Each structure stands twice: as C-alpha cells, then as structure tokens.
Prior knowledge:
The chain is α/β, with parallel strands linked by helices and 171 residues long. The protein has a single domain (5-166), classed as LD-carboxypeptidase A C-terminal domain-like (Glucose Oxidase, domain 1), CATH 3.50.30.60. It contains six helices and seven strands. A seven-stranded mixed sheet has the order 1-5-4-3-2-6-7. It comes from Leucobacter viscericola. Residues 45-154 form the LD-carboxypeptidase C-terminal domain. One of its GO terms (biological process) is proteolysis.
Amino acid sequence: MAGTDVFRNSEFVREDVHRWLFEPWGGREIIGPKTEILAPGVAEARFTGGNLSLLGAGIGALLTPEKAPGILFLEDISEEVYRLDNLLIQLERAGRLAAAEGIVLGSWYECGESDEIRDLMHEYLGDRGIPVLWEQGFGHDPEALTVPLNVDGRLDASGDSPRLTVAGGHA
C-alpha cells in the first residue's frame, strides 16, 4: 500500500496510516462515513479476515485458520457479483462464516452495483444472529481506511450509530 499513488497523493490516507503506525490504538474507533448496520448486535473478538478472493483461495491450505472465531472483515476488488456469491459459498462450506462472531464489510471497489452486492451480503449474512456492518470504508477504494487485523476489538451495532473499537495495542 505504501508504494501506491493513493498513498502518495492522498493526505487522508497518509494521515490514517501514520496514526496506526505511530499513535496508541487502544480505544480508537474506526467508522467509515458510509457505514450502515445490516444486522444488529454486539461482538467482542479478534479482528480477522481480509480480501474475500484470497480467503476463498486459501481454504484448505495448512496455514489457513478456516474456522477461527472472531470479527470477520471482508472486502474485494474487481470481482463480478456472481464470483462474490461463489466465494461466500466457499467460506460458508468451510465453516468460516459460522465461526464469525460479527462481520464487517468493506469496499467492493469495481465489483458491480453497490445495491446488488449489498443485497447479496444481506442474503448470506443478515440472518445469522450476529452483528454485520456494511461499507466500513476499508479495502481497495482510493480513500480506504486502514483497519488492523489480529487485534481484539468490539463491534457494536445495537443502536442507531454503529461503533467499531480497537481494544488495545500500541505502535
């Protein structure tokens, strides 16, 4: 990421990365400007996940924790909606979605119509009894937020305004 034009040309991205690298994390909230609640609830767990295509490709690999519990972050770039559908089926069959204690969806940059992707995600994830956030703002979008993985945090989608908070850590 640090070598991309986005990093060089976007003051917002540079400042966001700088904060994560050089300032304390504990209690920091991460909420994108367009974040919505797809399913209500609260979860406290480790942040896991990443790019949906890579997670799908890694299923069955020895070092892939397919059934690791946690708050699962998902995003992708340049995938057709039918491919996103197939990748969600893969994660479901591998037990990765069932293990999730909450799900945070990022950007779906160049993946098709936002409403169609949102409907697909709601179909797979909306009735699991866990909190789900839509369009958190991380991923491959040019103004993407930085989100740390493998840290503990809290996802609160119980009220009108969603909250995603990092539990602790320091640069």
